[in-house]
Design brief:
Protein name: Pyrroline-5-carboxylate reductase
Family: Belongs to the pyrroline-5-carboxylate reductase family.
GO molecular function: pyrroline-5-carboxylate reductase activity
Oligomer: single chain
CATH topology of the largest domain: Rossmann fold
InterPro entries: 6-PGluconate_DH-like_C_sf, NAD(P)-bd_dom_sf, P5C_Rdtase_cat_N, P5CR_dimer, Pyrroline-COOH_reductase
Largest sheet: 8 strands, mixed
Keywords: NADP
Distance between the termini: 34 Å
């Protein structure tokens, strides 16, 4: 394992590089300073067609993404860090690939597999021989591709300090990270997923209503998305929800009247019910 220092020299393998794997890799490549860090990536795809797609996508980064294959074992063999980015239900199939468990031995394994606990993954990868296991469970969000991920990292005391630091550093390249106890990871994942779903639906409704009122769609989308961005930024250490709401809700103002209309539609209880349902669904996966 390469030393975790200010300057890093690492090979990172991404197995099953689907949508989230591509989003993660794209974000890292945008963020990493090649003059400071020497990162090389090997990625595996499920099929030849997917491999061809990845080759086209990362053609301009061939010096960094220098191995694209359909063989998970080949991708993982020389890596320092192996990121599991395939679908959770494919775990058994992938691990049964010829030589893969041996290729994963002694490496830092980062799992993006939703619904699969660190303990379960450790047992599967190491076939019960867990004394030298190095597994970190991480759940980035779709914003990773533009370096705006809300990444959840399981706070695992079993990992060494250097492995924990490396995982945090790697995913901070694509956005913000939040340490979460394993027992809460599914709940917080559901909150993240529900937030994305609800914001997209709300924005779609805002844009459609704006268009119906005569606003060109590109203008409506630009204004709505920038307002969401600014509100999000203000809530990250600058203002509380209460102070933001109060500052916008001047007497006889547009905002307070819009909020009162929303309350008539029971939007608050609808949002709360949707989040509660998402949490219960995630816990039962």
């Amino acid at each position: 394992m390469a030393s975790v220092s200010a300057s890093r020299k690492l090979r990172i393998a991404i197995l099953g590089c689907g949508f989230m794997g591509k989003a993660l890799l794209s974000g890292i490549l945008k963020s990493i300073d090649g003059t400071t860090h020497e990162l090389k990536f090997s990625i595996s795809a499920r099929s030849q067609a997917s491999r061809d797609n990845l080759q086209g996508m990362f053609k301009s980064k061939a010096d960094t993404v220098d191995l694209i294959t359909t063989d998970n074992t080949v991708a993982a063999r020389d890596a320092d860090v192996v990121i599991l980015a395939f679908q959770p239900q494919q775990l058994e199939q992938v691990l049964n690939g010829t030589g893969l468990r041996d290729a994963l031995s002694s490496k830092l394994i980062v799992s993006l597999l939703a619904g699969i606990s660190s303990e379960r993954l450790t047992q599967k990868v190491y076939s019960g021989q867990t004394q030298n296991s190095r597994v970190s469970r991480v759940l980035p969000s779709i914003g990773a591709q533009i370096n705006e991920s809300a990444t959840l990292v399981v706070d695992d005391a079993k990992l060494s300090a250097s492995d924990r630091e490396l995982v945090m550093w790697l995913f901070q390249q694509v956005g913000q990270t939040q340490l979460v106890p394993e027992e809460l990871i599914d709940t917080v994942t559901a909150v993240s997923a529900a937030t994305h779903a609800l914001v997209v639906v709300a924005t779609d409704a805002i844009v459609d209503s704006s268009v119906a009122s005569g606003v060109p769609r590109p203008v409506a989308l630009a204004v709505a998305s920038q307002c969401l961005r600014s509100a999000s930024s203000l809530l990250q250490g600058h203002m509380t929800i209460e102070s933001l709401k109060e500052s916008m809700s001047i007497a006889r103002g547009i905002t307070i009247n819009a909020l009162l209309r929303l309350e008539k539609g029971q939007v608050r209880s609808g949002v709360s019910d949707a989040v509660t349902h998402a949490v219960q669904y995630a816990r039962n996966m």
